Amino acid sequence: MIKFNKFFNKKAGKTYSLGLVLSGGAARGLAHLGVLKAMEEVDLHPDIISGVSAGAIAGGLYADGKTPEEILEIFKVNGFFDFARFTLPKAGFMSTEKLHNVLKKELKAKVFSDLKIPFYAAAANLNAGKILYFSEGELVKRMVASASIPVLFKPVEIEGSVYVDGGVFDNLPRKPIQEQCRHLIGVHVNPTGYEEKLDSMVSIAARTFHLTVGAKISHEKENFDLFIEPEALKEYTLLNISKADEIYKHGYEAAKKALTDEKVRELKA
User: Fold this and answer.
1) Model's pTM, two decimal places?
2) Any residues with CB less than 8 A from the CB of 97 and at least 6 apart, and which?
3) pLDDT, tens digit, for every residue of 185-194?
4) Which of 198, 227, 243, 259 has the smallest set of CB atoms within 10 Å of its CB?
């Protein structure tokens, strides 16, 4: 699905040529890696990235210099439930301690300014009831906060405030970078489809969050020069990490289809 920015003729004097916005989507976020691989094959490289939840994890690792294949391997080796430790449900069913440890091990950058590509991670401040787009400070904790799905994961405390998944307010965080970019690509990996098996509190919590954040996306499409949404992802649950290779492939194929020669030339202009 491709949409062109209605502000296309107002792009003179922008700081960056190409911005990339990556949505949340839990395991579906592995499709972002396929999109990044397809972009690399046509010599398209984001100058700035904004991500939320799984998009913040993928985007942060990519901004740190990891290849799409290397990031995919990190997820495959560790698995979803190696990132999440079950806890008594006082603040969330699962702790993000293991995700924190994996990112701490894999990321070379310690703070945002160490990254090779400028990067924003969106998280929701529960105390203030608003979205915050992190672009400075300690990196790992802010990436984990961006990916802490409410109820499912325990919130993350940062400087006295409690944060959860930024998709609560903005599951396609273009706002912090749109005015800085001549061109903007948005990748949404949360198309809504029928889900037959909802047989646990975890799956119900994930599905409820998915439907809530997905309802806000349709009006966002017009704000991107190129909007990529792999429709095949409807067949995968948010926790379907065992299908990592398939999800990656769907992202790759959707991007290859969208990145025609003409569109690539426009995005490089």
Assistant:
1) 0.86
2) 85
3) 999 998 765 5
4) 198
